[in-house]
Amino acid sequence: MLLKLFGLCVLAGVLVASLMLPAALGAGAAVNETTSAMSRMSKSLQKARMPLTTKVLDRNGDPIAYFYDDYRIPTSEDKISKTMKSAITAIEDKRFWEHSGVDWQGTMRALATNVSSGSVEEGASTLTQQYVKNYLVHVVADSKMERHDAKETTVARKLREARLAVELERTMSKEEILTSYLNVVPFGNQTFGVGAAAQTYFGTTPDELTVSQSALLAALVNAPGALNPNLNPDDAKHRRNMVIDRMASPNNGIRITEEDAERAKKKPLDVLDPLGRPPSSCIGAGGSATNGFFCTYLRDYLNRAGFSDKELDQGGYTIHSTLDPEATEAAKKAAEAQVPKRSENIANPMAIVEPGKDKHEVRALVANRDFGNDASKGQTAYDIVSKVQTRGAGSVFKIFTAAAAIQQGMSPYDEIPVPAEYTTHQFGGGKPWTVHNAEGVSSGSRTLQEALATSPNTGFVMLLEKVGLDNAVDMATKLGLRRSMTEVDENGRSLEEGELTQAEAIKQHDKGSFTLGVDSVSVLELSNVMATIASDGKWCPPTPVTSMTDRNGDPVGIKGQSCEQVISPHTAHALAQGLADDHKPGGTSHAAAESAGWKRPLMAKTGTTQFYRSAVLVGATPQMAGAVMTLVDGPPWEGICVNGSAPPYQCGDSAGNLYGGTVPARTFYPAMKKIHDGKPVKQLPKVGER
Fold first, then answer.
1. Same domain? 155 vs 288
2. Would the keyword Oxidoreductase be found if you checked this record's keyword annotation (predicted)?
3. How far apart are CA 510 and CA 468, in angstroms?
4. Which pTM value belongs to this model?
5. I want to staple 492 with a disulfide (CB 3.0 to 4.6 A). Which of 146, 390, 443, 663 is the partner?
6. What are the start-end ranges of the E strands in 491-635?
7. CA 310 to the chain's CA centroid
């Protein structure tokens, strides 16, 4: 302790010598250079480019998520109550309005007190010095080591703080310094600055802070952890009342009356429980159970566009997203109605994308499961909607074979043969492969349009022989399966160096089962495939962002992929007509469409994988596209059974009976019907019959 006190004496002497004798220290080029550096840093302190909170809004302008390292709400001088200014100066620097950055009277008094008591009883840092320290620790420092160095009690650090404080007092007004301090100081609970503190502890704004509220916030600055009002209310209240007493002191620059002080001390703490600070992630934000999948995709989208996590967590951006709360609610309700959120090992994600010639805006990404970390409550933080799943889409992939055939000149009204059984030698290195149709699918030639509605396996394997496997795979990539085909391996896992992409592996292995949809796929990308067809063959990246502004409100450009005309409008129109009968009598989703009261023109396709571990329905009107995948999302990896309107359940591979026309269709039609309420009925594009 004696050594520490001796150090304080030395420190005080150094400060006095360095700051009160500038002429003596100012001689020489080296000192001038140091002074210049200090001046540059003081200008940086004036600008105070602090890490700020990024806010994500839905299409109606309501917040859905916040990203931050430190929760901050920048607050201007005129938006901070006088009571807050009174409280902070009273307890932290009562001579703030009088000194010039360093309080020599306070420094010497503190030194005398500490020496006489034999312990460190008082500190002597002014608010200006504290601002310098907090800025260097919480704004400039970029690592734990830098933060440690900025806080270390050394003569060099104290000297630098003091010199900067004096420099700031020459270039900033007292009000500017006080406001800057109140915007950077930590109040505990990951909350920095009075704007965020008012919201976190009281759910209010700084201009509305009362005497008792201001005093508590000022009290927290001394020891935010130890004085946490929800954990240590007695200590917090004691410190708060001490602040209130000092606010009423005649020596306080902004004084309150004794009567106000007595009334304030009788007030309860009234701190929010839980605190009003929003969570900094896609988990736990308002509506995150429903919006979390969209939020995760948005963040991933911006990462790919060049915005690092650090930029998003510190940049103070305002992101206007494409999320439609009404569409999201309708899709979430439908997904959960068919597969309850706590269903063991069965997920039911749905994606909604709005078609367009210049953009494809993502309107909803939901699942039966809530977004979160508690699996016991039916939550998952894994993005089962936009990321590539290790489950296939079944006969939905016949769309790509049909699209390749139409591009090569086929009409949706041309007939294809549909035998009950077919053996091909064209795939898998020439080895014979025999294909059968699913139960209930009759044999006999039919038009391509009828084949897409009834989904015979044999007919599409024969068609794949004609159009070529490579052409069908390329078509899948063009229409929208960009990540699914080019960013994962043949097992749907992230690519390792030197591995083949899924598309490359399918081609290299001559995988004719591609047209039967056995390969990994993203639900969002399936929805975007339908949006591409509905947009006259114009592919656009599925975007979750409409606009983005920086902390100053200036527009921020987002680098993204450009839209591409991937198939001709004629091919897109013919494909739309080919897919126009699935919801009609005889189509695989007719029963679900009829039950939901679906009346609009629609292009759609269902699919089911072998062993009934996943099933899909994709569909689109000219106004909106969607996809639903019901899948096994946890062990045991067994097939799914459907028994009437009861929730689906796992029942082993041999007994499964899940189809795209059951759970996925029963999810899709009610959701899309609700989403289309109030929209005009639009016809699918027409192509001439041959």
1. no
2. no
3. 10
4. 0.88
5. 390
6. 521-522, 538-539, 542-543, 545-549, 564-565, 603-608, 614-620, 625-632
7. 13
